[in-house]
Amino acid sequence: MVTAAEVSVYCRAMDYCHLHNLVDPAGAGAERRYGIRVTLPSGDTLRKILGDDWETLHWYPSEVDRDSAFEQMAIRHGYYRQSDTPSQTLEKIVR
Fold this sequence. Notes:
This protein is α+β, with helices and mostly antiparallel strands. It has helices at about 5-15, 45-50, 65-75, and strands at about 35-40, 55-60, 90-95.
């Protein structure tokens, strides 16, 4: 049987154990005021699956970090087939 203390330790460890996590452990407590809102353009067929109100937000501690991430997100990645036409709408935001 797993105790509450063991679950607590396990959950804290899981916050950063995977390389694909978006939060750098060194800056996990930093205030993040600069963001990128990702939505789908109207008429995008993926809206039929995700819904018309789908969005995801990425937050960064500085405007420079956000702008750098924005440029990377705007690049067409090599994972797509030549026949694919990926679409997303990126918007810089501040809270």
